[in-house]
Amino acid sequence: MLGLLVLFFIGKAFYTLAQKHNRNKWLFAILGIVVCYGMITIGALLVVFIAIAVSGDGILNNSDTVLGLMGVPVGLLSAWLFHHLLRKNWEGNPKDQNSDLLDSSNF
Predict the structure, then answer these.
(1) Which long-range contacts (CB under 8 A, 24 or more apart) does 21-25 make?
(2) Among 4, 22, 90, 102, which residue's beta carbon has the most beta carbons within 10 A?
């Protein structure tokens, strides 16, 4: 149930950001969720590899849930960072609303 809430709030944040800046809403909502869950997986693997390198195989005695939760801060931080970078990029480079810019048929 908690995973569904994470999906909803991350997707909603990216959806509203894309909507505010006239971008593809569903693409960026899904992309934000993929970035978050991908980085959760990568973050958990990094934590496990670092813990094995530092203290040996002791961390592998924990359950899979605990090992998976170790990557959640990395995933949430990366989703926030991606959201922040998109917002700064889109505010600095707004999408042009002029339809005559490239679609002119007066060649």
Answers:
(1) 21/87, 21/90, 21/91, 21/94, 21/95, 22/95, 22/97, 23/90, 23/95
(2) 90
